[in-house]
Amino acid sequence: MKVKVSTKILLAFVVLGVVLVITEVLGLSPIALLEAALLAMTPLALAAMGESINQKAGLVNIGLEGIFLITAVAGVYGAVEANNGIVGLLFGVIVGALIGLLFGVLSVYGKADQIIVGIGINVFAIGFVPYFMMSTWGFPGIYIPPKEVLVPPLPIPVMRISGITLLAITLGILLHLMLHKTPLGLRILAAGETPEALDVAGIRVDYVRIFTAILSGALTGLGGAFMPLCWFGGIVKEISAGRGFIALACLVSAGLEPLLAMSFAFIFGFAEGLAYTVAVTPGIKEAIPYHLVLMIPYITTLAVVTAFIGKRRFPKAAGTPYTRE
Amino acid sequence: MEKTFIASSKVIQPLLHSGLALIIGLIAGALLMIIYGYNPILAYTALFRGAFGGMAEFAETLSFAIPLMLTGITFAIGVKAGLFNIGAEGQVYIGALGAVLAGAFLHLPFGVHVAVTTIFAMILGALWSIGPALLKIWRGVHEVISTIMFNWIAFYLTMYFALYHLAEPGRAEKTVSVLETARYSVLMPGASLTSVIFISAAFCVVIYLFLTITKAGYELKLLGANPDAAKYAGVNAKRVILSSFIIGGLAAGLAGATQIIGRPPTWALYGTLGNVMGLGFDGIGVALIGRNNPIGVIIAAIFLGALKNGGRYMEYSAGVYSELVGAINGLIIIALAVPEVMALIRRHFKRYKP
Predict the structure, then answer these.
(1) How much is the ipTM here?
(2) CA neighbor of A129 nearest in space, from A146, A115, A147, A143
(3) pTM (two decimals)
(4) CB within 8 Å of chain A, chain B residues 131-170
């Protein structure tokens, strides 16, 4: 029997609901859990949505992890220099967009092996980030910026929620409409499926792909800067902790649909929120070792991808450079 | 005449591309030094002296190269089969954990103990690689995602055991040290090079022979080069994928073991995993620089080992933080991914053709 994706998603949310009820019974705070889930969801959703559009256009950038790392330090650097958290977030967006542009140029004009470029971005970031932190702040592993430069959550009662989270959800809807209801969206889809046809129609395939590469980089950059400025309040050199790859898991499970990718980001965010909440809850934190709790997001990711990947169809031209005849 | 030209260009062009990528990486690294106010000439001189300045320095460079050639094999054998296996990192942790377990808690005679510990670590590394392989074969889960998830699970699992079950009493920052009988012998006083280098190099050579003279090796390369042709030739893709992952896991497990039973002075695993961290990702660059050829991988490992070893002297005498070497490695990988770099050289040479 074939189970529809929407049914599976619905099922997943039912499971989440049950978990919420259980947490209530166990004496955990469901509000705290939801807050943690929404925070963890935001960078995943931003990167997954941007990159799913990039892959729809035929580019595969697996360097999201590296972009997260670099834009996280860039965001903190911008925020500290300007003494303003919003400027820091914008700085993250710009640096992310530039890395996206570089990836796009190498892939489209350099006809590079896109997977290898992505791996290169990740390896570069692992070395560059501690080097940058050492050169700039004199300590390689960790930096806590002054509290004033952090971006506070929205001033609403009941729940702590970041404006960027709401922005991410809005963007999800907008990107979905852009992809499926506008001429630009049609061109993006064509660039990934039949670039020759797009070319014959007089649209430059290279421009479309460079655009999506920049979009993907910029959104991932916002997610990267979000982590230290809106979430953790500081930066460690491994701040992204595999989230770039969890974002890839989101978009692969979602078959490159931005809105679905966002739903998956929420599921993974929930798993992470659960891990953090469990890790600090008295009574539970003594029973289950901290390090084993921290595995929850990664095990969830594996389980969800395995369950959802099924017979997903990916764009025909994904990962291959387009050469004009 | 024509034939020999093609044969030589088949060897020389990849060498040129690797060489050019190294130069691009080093120049970009120099720019990164200048931006942050360091003197690149001073830094690279220190790096070179630290890596090749004398016999002890060179021995230390070789010592750094040992795990890199093995994790390089992990990635290379994946690429040969058409896979992007970036799971060496986690398999190294698990291999190191296995080496601590077998090396510290088994009591065996000299010689046997070293062999058993080495093999145990390799098997654990291989077991850890089977998860992503099966997910790939059964469900088509992309190995880039699954291997990274397994890396992080291995990270917390290994750390958990190192901190809570294997920690040395009174010195919680490291595990208990392996017994004397489980250690490879130090080859030179003053350097951390041990006889494990022979095992590692032999492993690479065995993989080279496997790829060049065995039927299984040929099938593996065929699947990577042309999956359709492999299908028509009757190659069992699932079995090839599994074997590629397992060989990669054996190599990475051995790499983890080399840092525990083949490297003085600790003979133990740090609770932070500091002495095994990053080795898996370094291997990706090593494989690509070595053009995914096991012999090329050995040479590339010595090059990156020199950067890592010399990097410490660079930090000491020029003040450039040694993590920059990792960034340079990333830039080299990016330069190697772009075939147009090579096309540029080709066009340049064509211009001078009669």
Answers:
(1) 0.88
(2) A143
(3) 0.89
(4) 135, 139-142, 144-146, 148-153, 156-157, 159-160, 163-164
